[in-house]
Amino acid sequence: MPGISLSAEVRQFASAPSALFIDGVFARGSGDPLTLLDPATEEAIARFPEASPADVERVVASADQAFRDRRWTGLRPADRERILLQFANLVEQHGEELAQLETWNQGKSIAIARAVDVGASVEYMRYIAGLATKTTGLTLDLSIPVVPGGRYHAYTRPEPVGVVAAIAPWNFPMMIALWKVMPALAAGCTVVLKPSEFTPLSALRLAELAIEAGVPAGVFNVAVGRGATTGTALVGHPAVAKVSFTGSTATGKQIGRAAIDRMARFSLELGGKNPAIVLADADPARIAPGLLGAAFLNSGQVCASLSRIYVERPAYEGLLEALREAVKAMTIGPGLDPAMQINPLVSAQHRDRVRERIREAGAAGATAISGAAVPSSGFYVSPTLVTGAGSDAAIQREEVFGPVLSVTPVDNADAAVQLANDSPYGLVASIWSNDLSRTMDLIPRIEAGTVYVNTHVPVDPNLPFGGYKQSGLGRDFGPDALAPYTEIKSVCVAY
Ligand code: NDP
Fold first, then answer.
1. CA 284, CA 271: separation in Å to the nearest integer?
2. According to the model, what pLDDT value does residue 157 have?
3. What is the pLDDT of residue 378?
4. Percent residues over pLDDT 90 in the chain
5. Mean pLDDT across 104-122
6. Whose alpha carbon is nearest atom 48 of ligand 1?
7. 8 Å CB contact between 453 and 430
């Protein structure tokens, strides 16, 4: 098979993983057995017991103790920043090892793992590390009338919220874990990370690297296990002050309800059903690669993936033809071969869910145009274009999270905006046109946390990211990225 071979150190690390990283060392879980599979071959990578609710108790106690004795919170911000920058350096130095772990465990392209999961993560880590020394409050003038002549000095202090439960999904396991762990640590919090049961390997390696960088033991802990057991125990733990979750809207609602019961803080980055509006002036040949990249990056397993295109009728036939040709030519194969554009999905269960969505669309009268045949083993779905789907069809309304893209002609931009917004989701959207006036008029009308123009999907640490409507609560990234991990204390001094 063409492509790269896994290094000995990657095989060694994955051979006997532990479910727990607690107080700076690995420990065996005492829960039910968990099997990790290679999505490209369906062969087992490792078997080990998950973290039981009793293990979660221990791991949260470790993070709680570390927060209370201020071994991290009490450091000078400059020291936290220096240690977190060193953590970024170590992730960069071990980049190839981490990329291979990610590809083996998740199925994704090694090229994406190197450039995005590792490359973009390192840049994100450095941006967030720098915020540790830039967190500020406000000074405020007060007008309290009750004590005539009274003088006051008032200010706010952002303080770390406490123990953070970071719950990460399986599509970008390490990168999205870092989107939670880094701002939590930069703000002075301690963390328990629960990666997805399907893709825990990179999270475990990250915890080791954090210790090597100088993060004190107990500050960054990991508990691996299923959402229903390990995840539920973590979210419900009374010492967890904040839950930061990325995943499905259904699970996000469950987590929000559990958190609010005891007023734990929570932020949710959830699903999307992200539309693109293509205006009549767009050149199909020029925009097709961008649209395809947005839809099929990581085989469509991206919360910001493009999944619906609404195109003004004059551009429809040309665009469909360009997309059809490109989809037919896409290469399908294992992630360890960097030439493969479509790789296996994360699990058999997820592959079956995506295939069922395509079958349902066909049964509802839509036409599915598929790419090349998929390999006989591995959790593959051929890239698929869907045309003729009604606006009420499940394929137009529900998140598929696979390599599936619908294309629909519309009479005009008003109709496109109406259809684009006719969704419970509102994560990202894009507009494709060189007509600046029409584009600028559309941007405020679109219900989405990010609107891209002539691009779709890139995220940047300096650009706030999060959803409108049922795509989530709160924003990640940007200069205020630490705010969700702090409480604001108001201080009023009379003198
Ligand atoms: P989930 O939302 O169920 O999983 C995301 C994370 O939450 C995983 O770590 C999961 O653990 C954990 N989890 C699940 N249930 C609980 C719980 N009750 N308490 C605490 N943690 C929990 O996603 P699925 O894996 O079921 O995927 C289903 C769909 O979700 C996908 O098809 C896709 O549409 C969407 N999704 C969206 C993502 C995004 O980036 N917005 C990412 C992943 C999925 P575990 O995996 O171990 O069960």
1. 28
2. 97
3. 98
4. 98
5. 98
6. 227
7. yes
Active site residue 492: no
Q: What is the dihedral of CA 247, 248, 252, 255, to 10 degrees?
A: -80
Q: 54: CA distance to ligand 1 center in Å?
A: 22
CB 371 within 8 A of CB 330: yes
DSSP category for residue 298: G
Task: Give the distance (Å) from ligand 1 centre to CA of residue 245.
Answer: 9
Looking at the CA of residue 176, tell me the nearest atom of ligand 1: 40
Most ligand 1 atoms within 8 A of CB, residue of 37, 197, 401 to mutate: 401
* Average confidence score pLDDT of the chain: 97
| 274-460: CATH topology | Aldehyde Dehydrogenase; Chain A, domain 2 (3.40.309)
For 373, half-sphere exposure in the C-beta direction (CA atoms, 13 angstrom radius) is: 3
Alpha carbons within 13 A on the beta-carbon side of 55: 27
List, for residues 30-68, the tens digit of each pLDDT value: 999 999 999 999 999 999 999 999 999 999 999 999 999
Of the candidate ranges 140-149, 229-238, 257-266, 454-463, the one whose mean pLDDT is the lowest: 140-149
Fold classified for 8-270+473-494: Aldehyde Dehydrogenase; Chain A, domain 1 (3.40.605)
Token reading at 297: 């990056």
The reported pTM is: 0.97
Task: Calculate mean pLDDT across residues 473-494.
Answer: 97
Q: What is the chain's percent helix, strand, coil content, to nearest 5?
A: 40, 20, 40
Domain boundaries, the chain: 8-270+473-494, 274-460
- The reply to whether 274-460 shares the fold of 8-270+473-494 is no
Give kind and range of the element (H or E) at residue 194: strand 190-194
Distance CA 172, CA 476 (A): 15
pLDDT, tens digit, 9 for 90 and up, residues 276-293:
999 999 999 999 999 999
Nearest C-alpha to atom 6 of ligand 1 is from which residue? 169
Q: Which residues have any ligand 1 atom within 6 Å of their CB? A: 167-171, 194, 196-198, 226-228, 231-232, 235, 246-248, 251, 254-255, 270-271, 303, 399, 401
- pLDDT surpassing 70 at residue 1: no
Q: Is 269 a catalytic residue?
A: yes
| Confidence at residue 148, expressed as pLDDT on a 0 to 100 scale | 87
Distance 348 CA to ligand 1 centre (A): 15
Distance 278 CA to ligand 1 centre (A): 31
